Amino acid sequence: MPVIVLEAKDFTSPLFVVRTWEVLSSCTTFSLVASLDSSELNKNLSYLNTFRIFCMFTWCFFFTLTLLIHILSVIQFHSLIPISWKNLTMTVAVLGALMCLSTSVVFPWIIMDHQKLSTHTVAAAVLSCLTFLAYTSESYVLRTQAHEQRGYMGSMPGLLKILQLWGGCQMIPLVMDVVCGPPSGVHCWQRWVSCMSYGVCIFMSLVTLVVILGDFAGRCLLPFDRFLAGFSLIGVLFYMVATVICFTKILQLRDIRHSIPNKGVELIIAETVVASITLLAYTVDLAFSIKLLCDRSHA
Questions:
Q1: 139 and 126 both lie in a single domain
Q2: Is residue 46 packed enough to be buried (19+ CB in 10 Å), middle (13-18) or exposed (0-12)?
Q3: Which one of 80, 154, 181, 206 is at 20 to 30 Å from 228 when CA atoms are compared?
Q4: What is the tens place of the pLDDT at every residue in 98-149?
Q5: Helices (H), strands (E): how many in the chain?
Q6: Is 189 a domain residue?
Q7: What's the CA gap between 293 and 43, in Å, rounded?
Q8: Is the pTM for the entire model greater than 0.85?
Q9: Whether residue 63 has pLDDT greater than 80
Q10: Coil, helix or strand for 85?
Q11: Which residues neighbour 188 within 8 Å (Cβ) at sequence distance 6 or greater?
Q12: pLDDT number for residue 225
């Protein structure tokens, strides 16, 4: 089969420009961070090292994924891949914007303790923000396309599911303090119940994403709308439990704050904020699912 390449005018299209911007900025960002030595990062603190790995993984993962999408778009081979292309590109763009927003907050937080900042660390922080702007621009370009080109993930329920997946991804480094973080002064059972809740919800988000990207909705044992409504309900219940535990931790901080490092307090507050945002996303998604089920039952 001959290789089809884009026409010359396509190389100046907004989508081509923003994807090139994403590849270059993300590659430069993780290259700068990889070149830093231990004196420029708090590698001696295990929980901060976890967040550094989280940032590096985010930049490298989305660089690789965006580069593959970019190449396949140029040679027009995406039609040969058994994946819903429009849902894949929208998912990568929106999730990339959210994840790069997180790294643009987390990475400066990591280097804030240094009294003397190097040019490499400052440049990496700035480039991370530029990467976030690049993915945000691609999300906007894809959202302005026709509804048929955006796919399910470009709709409001689809965007909410991406937000849910983002919330689960943020919890991975946040709950690592169970093993290697500073003492938080909260009960062990609270930590592990939260971890179980986040783990179940991440698994459900990944299953939903695989079903949508693989166009497996018609092969589900249950109707797909009921399948999504069930996952949304489970997500609401689990995140309600996790959010209550988070606020309980904050209330406990009033009595034990003097014995907890500042970073430990910040981790608890960050977990509470992300859990609340994700709970809101699941709640709104459940409302959309119930409305869809009611509309179909009356049709």
A1: yes
A2: middle
A3: 80
A4: 999 999 999 988 877 655 677 888 899 999 999 999 999 999 999 888 766 7
A5: 9, 0
A6: yes
A7: 51
A8: yes
A9: yes
A10: helix
A11: none
A12: 84
Q: Residues for the chain: how many in total?
A: 299
C-alpha span between 264 and 252 (Å, rounded)? 13
Range of the domain at 169: 155-298
Q: DSSP string covering 127-193, please?
A: HHHHHHHHHHHHHHHHHTS-HHHH-GGGSHHHHHHHHHHHHHHHHHHHGGGGTSS----S-HHHHHH
Chain centre distance of CA 45: 24
In the predicted model, what is the mean pLDDT of residues 227-235? Answer: 92
Residue for token pair 């783990």: 199
Environment class of residue 5 by beta-carbon count within 10 Å: exposed (0-12), middle (13-18) or buried (19+)?
exposed
Q: Could you tell me which of 244, 268, 240 has the C-alpha nearest to residue 254?
A: 268
Query: Do 132 and 199 have their domain in common?
Result: no
Look at residues 170, 171, 153, 288 and name the one whose alpha carbon lies nearest to residue 231: 288
Task: Provide the pLDDT for residue 93.
Answer: 96
> Residue 100 in contact with residue 62, Cβ under 8 Å?
yes
Considering the domain architecture, whether residues 159 and 294 belong to the same structural domain is answered as: yes
Tokens standing for residue 120: 């490499």
Average pLDDT, the chain: 84
